[in-house]
Amino acid sequence: MMATSRARRPRLETVRRRLDRWRRTRPHARAPLPPGLWAAAVALVPEHGLYGTARALRLSYGALKQHVVDASDRQPGDRVTGDFVELPLAAHDACVIEVSGARTTMRLRLNGLTLTELAEFTRLVVGTAG
Asked: Has residue 54 got a pLDDT over 60?
């Protein structure tokens, strides 16, 4: 478990250093963040969460959330693809799933599911989305 935690730090730290360097050298205080830095911050969200990433990088939560939504917007007809994410859950843990779209956000709280039940639920949801 500690190896996973250590593996995450350098990437977050690298983006934080890049942001700090940009903040020191930007042309003026209200200069927009370059797209490459936004992309790097968005890439950290699946690992560290929206709030955790925004806080660690000292970014606006709302602006980061909008960049995540923009990055995930799909054109009609695009196939839904997903990555496997391993969740360290015990049977008594609650799982909250938040799905944000262009006009709405949906939250599902799933209490007391086993990993097998959560996997089956995910298969059902993804199967109906495609």
From this structure: yes
